[in-house]
Amino acid sequence: QVRLVESGGGLVQAGGSLRLSCTASGSYAMGWFRQAPGKEREFVAGTGWRGISTLYADSVKGRFTVSRDNAKNTVYLQMNSLKPEDTAVYSCAARTGAIRSTWSDYDYWGQGTQVTVSS
């Protein structure tokens, strides 16, 4: 069983930045997903277990950066130039194999952390 724990969420003004962290041990591809009230869960970004390959949703390209430090068993999501539409609960997820952008392809999930961007 893989336990994932997110941290770093909070309230920030539009244009601001936040960095989310997710602790997870093991050689897993990691994905970040978000879900806003009344909306479906959507893929945000992901990284392979070596941290070399990455994948981003079009809506966050150029603003968000996913990275990982395997020595610390931690995956990060640096979020810059935040917009009110980025407001959601952000969750990290793990899977064996390559990065995927479909939430159902992931086996393990964290509890989520709230990100709220005010206008």
Explained architecture:
By secondary structure, the chain is mainly beta. The chain is 0% helix and 48% strand. A hairpin with a 6-residue loop joins strand 4 and strand 5 (42-47). It has strands at residues 5-7, 10-13, 18-23, 29-35, 42-47, 54-56, 64-69, 74-79, 88-95, 108-109, 113-118. 34% of the residues are buried.
- Count, helices: 0
Gap between N and C termini? 40 Å
Oligomer: single chain
Q: Main sheet, how many strands, which sense, barrel?
A: 7 strands, mixed
SS content category: mainly beta
Report the sheet-strand fraction.
over 45%
Which stretches are poorly predicted, pLDDT < 50 over at least 5 residues? Answer: none
Please state the CA-atom Rg, rounded to the nearest Å: 13 Å
Number of strands: 11
Shape: globular
**What's the pLDDT, averaged over the residues?**
96
Percentage of residues in helical conformation: under 10%
The SSE string, one letter per element, is EEEEEEEEEEE
